[in-house]
Amino acid sequence: MLKSEILAVAKVHPLYLKALKEVFVVHDCAHEADATCFAQLAPRILGLAAGGESLVPSALLEQLPNLKLVSVFGVGYDGIDVQAAVGRGVMVTHTPGVLTDDVADLAMGLMLSLSRNIAQADHYVRAGRWPSGPMPLGRKFSGARLGIVGLGRIGMAIAQRALAFKMSIAYTGRSEKPGSGFVFYPSAAQLAAEVDFLLVITPGGQGTRHLVNAGVLAALGPAGYLINVARGSVVDEQALIEALQSGGIAGAALDVFADEPNVPQVLRDMPNLVLTPHMASATHQTRQAMADLAFANMQAVLAGRPALTPVPECLLGHRH
Ligand code: NAP
Ligand code: 8YV
Fold this sequence. Notes:
Blueprint: E1 5-8, H1 14-23, E2 25-28, H2 35-41, E3 45-51, H3 58-62, E4 69-73, H4 82-87, E5 91-93, H5 100-116, H6 118-126, E6 145-149, H7 153-164, E7 168-172, E8 183-184, H8 188-192, E9 197-200, H9 214-220, E10 225-228, H10 237-246, E11 251-254, H11 265-269, E12 273-275, H12 284-302, H13 312-317
Parallel strand pairs: 1-2, 1-3, 3-4, 4-5, 6-7, 6-9, 7-8, 9-10, 10-11, 11-12
């Protein structure tokens, strides 16, 4: 039997690629190569394999008349034109849930590192500076006030962990979660004014672009810390740089950036920052679980079965 053909639109994770290659013919980024060759290949492409940061614009979808699905290795899918996909009857799937614990764990690690200067302390000892005196004092973490921007799957997992640190928890988001037991604020600025740590964990895309802006950072204030594990687009990076430079906020921990993998030199030079390379779900166990789920979605839909984890927009609009 002929193998189905799929297009990997970016450098997809090796575990996902390996599983795909065992069953399908995979064309690696063929859409970026010669346009004539791609035009010949395009009608045979039935699936797109993508990562959480991949771009799938409507212009690409339009070139693929027989496309059935886009299977994203990641929970975020802000680079996919989902409305265009829905309009063409193309399913979009992602990998919710399997990475929730890892992202929440890293968020806690970032907050601890930020407040207790763990990254700086490591450099301090390695550089032989300990004999010359103690490090500056940190900020007590247990019992502090945490504000979560986006109390979804991951936001809730972070809240559960924060309770063990005796933190008080408040949140903002599109909708109030009356059952959560946490205090809701209708805007990010109102939330920021009431917390010590403001943690961002919404989806990216136009709906959340620069949700954390200069006004929100001013409300967070000189003793406040910002943590972003969502998408770089959710924070106005220039406003953040200005707030850090002026002492407008105390510090920040960032796993995501506006122009990944490029991080502005000014951020890399600042001492009151913890920077990680978009690695919140990057453990062996979770990457395998993500690859298994992304592959299972691809296999199911191409075999004519329902998708396991469609994005919410596709729960309603799907025609296959
Ligand atoms: P989720 O369960 O869908 O939660 C998203 C939350 O954000 C929901 O509470 C949602 O509110 C809220 N939200 C959505 N749009 C908003 C808006 N315009 N303004 C305010 N709040 C808004 O998703 P999740 O599984 O927790 O993942 C969240 C995001 O984390 C992903 O989309 C991705 O961008 C990011 N992420 C990053 C990494 C990393 O490696 N750094 C890893 C995984 C995920 P409602 O409840 O009202 O819908
Ligand atoms: C991944 C993520 O690193 O799931 C997401 O939305 O941002 C991360 O888990 C990324 O998607 C890998 O492609």
